[in-house]
Amino acid sequence: SEDGTYSLDAWFIPSHGENAATANTLIVYNHGRFAGIEHYAPRVRFFHELGYAVYVWDYRGYGHSLPVDPDESAAPPKTPDWMNDARLAFQQAQNQAPDPSKMVVYGMSVGGIPAGEMADVYDAESCANVFEAAYNSISAKIETNLALSIPGSHLTSGLIENEVKLADITTPTLIVHGELDDRIHLDEARRLYEKLPESLPKQWEVVPEAGHGLGGEGGVPEQNLQAYGIILEDFLAEHAPNCLSGE
Fold this sequence. Notes:
By secondary structure, the protein is α/β, with parallel strands linked by helices. The protein has helices at 41-49, 79-96, 112-121, 138-144, 162-165, 186-195, 220-223, 225-239, and strands spanning 10-13, 26-30, 53-57, 103-108, 128-132, 173-178, 202-207. Residues 151-156 have low confidence and may be disordered.
């Protein structure tokens, strides 16, 4: 951080350059709450194999990111800190991006919270948003009544209501969710999609047989990596062509 009081660990993996369309596109990946970057390395590798550059970062207390709060070591950081960190991570990703105009904000599971902050604050600077099996809001979580460990301090912060924060964004957005997700209900994802502006280029995708994460039955990409790669690139080509490079 600028004041030197904490540090965030991040990986930047450049594109292999073999897919001309995605060679200059950076996926800014906000991972889930299960563990640090290493746990999500299969996803990072997947995006790399598709030809994207990838920037992925660890939240406070995850992986090598500091400081560690011993009272909340198994939970996301306190909301204001997390939002500040999300902005710092996006700025660092801009510094690494092969083309800063081709940055895709990506939120998976609880990563939908920092991704929502990035999508809101950097609406004019990102070229697309993707929310996969993503957490949406406290109100939606209460209504669906599903198990997701969120510290009580988040309940009244007002900083993680994506359906409110993203109600006036202009960046093309893809909402993709597994039909069998037992952590984030399908209705919660649909609620976010419906709250996005009607004028916004947006796309809704439900993947049959997909669960929530990397383990068990596997999440959205694991059902068919090639098919998911096509969904993602086709979305960008149709709704956010500025994210891709010309042949």
